[in-house]
Specification:
single chain, about 100 residues, alpha+beta, Translation Initiation Factor IF3, four-stranded mixed β-sheet, 2 helices, 4 strands, elongated, UPF0145_YbjQ-like
């Protein structure tokens, strides 16, 4: 499966299939949440939240690819990511793009 954030793949003629998406809502445990809140007092990278967002993006991408594979897609083009806070310490991440077949 080819994944790109452009609306084309060089050298390929594409047949558009459909919008595909994958999403997840993730949070850190209360212990990590408390330690990260102390980190905001002194500044710096919030590594636990960075890891959480990386895991969430990977899972959302995996789910998007699974949806594309079910359609028989060869690739997903024009991939985008969005995120939003659901509550303190929890975020939704969505990955979406256009599933395509090669002609």
């Amino acid at each position: 499966m080819i994944l790109v954030n452009t609306d084309y793949i060089s050298g390929k003629e594409l047949e558009m299939l459909s919008l595909v998406k994958g999403s997840t809502i993730q949070s850190k445990n209360i212990g990590k949440d408390i330690t990260q809140s102390f980190k905001t007092l002194v500044g710096g990278e919030l590594k636990a939240y960075n890891e959480m967002m990386n895991e969430a993006r990977a899972l959302a991408t995996k789910r998007m690819v699974e949806e594309a594979e079910q359609m028989g897609a060869d690739a997903v083009v024009n991939i985008r990511y969005a995120s939003s806070a659901i509550m303190q310490g929890a975020a939704e991440v969505i990955a979406y793009g256009t599933a395509v077949k090669f002609k």
